[in-house]
Predict the 3D structure of the following.
Amino acid sequence: MKVVGGSASLPLARALARELGVPLVDVSFEKHPGGFPDGERYVRLQDSVAGEHAILVQTTHPDSMVVECLLLADAIRDAGARRLTAIIPYFGYGRQDKRFADGEAVSAKTLAKHIALDADDLLTMTIHNPDVLALFPIRAREVSGIPAIGRYLKAAGVDLVLAPDDNAVRLAKEAAAIAGTPYDYLDKERLDSYTVRVTPKELKVQGKSVAIVDDVISTGGTIATAAKELKSQGATRVLAACVHGLFVGRAEDTLQSCDEVVATAPVVSAHTKVTVAPELARAVRELTG
Ligand code: R5P
């Protein structure tokens, strides 16, 4: 077995290879110093993967990393790997998981179809909607990133875990069980790409330290709205925790209402404080029996 890391996921690929005790394949991402000036991606495997079970680790965000993922998968196949497991730590495009209106692309399906051209099986981490796994024409499994967050929250001594919307309830429940706290949730309505509204609800948070747990923080709007609600009801400390921290646009400003922001490793940012390599290594071992 050998691990190949795309440039979106190199630290995680390196950590995974270490956990598994297998080599990390050296990959170059530039044909010439400076790469393609027009921004096109380039990959070259520097080590052999012939006859190997190759584990490709690459988050599909931002868009250029989708292209790189497909290039790497194709190169691995051309180089004679006997099996290719794609680990997509953050499955970008996973939120367009159905046709909400006639004529729309089901983006999650589009990506699934193309990744499956070369991959034999797939692992992804805390996906927005687990039903997306059924869109893959290959064996696809979700690995939870929440245990890592739960351990962080336990060490941080939070009193309550809050899901900012009903989609995150399963995550809050799992995190709370590990942190040893109760959990609660809010009802969220999305008004536009940046704005959400939560239904007013009494939360027993007076004088408490509360963690809001979500799969993704993108603009930060969801978390900031929930954080304001918590502070207005007397929470003394609000910690925002997500598996995938995208932090787009003015997210850092938007998240000022939180006392701390924590993200795990699938998308690398200044808030990446928690590794998920042990969770992924366990899933790879289960795959290979
Ligand atoms: C949507 O339901 C997701 O679980 C997240 O709540 C959402 O993607 C967060 O986006 P933003 O940070 O832009 O509010």
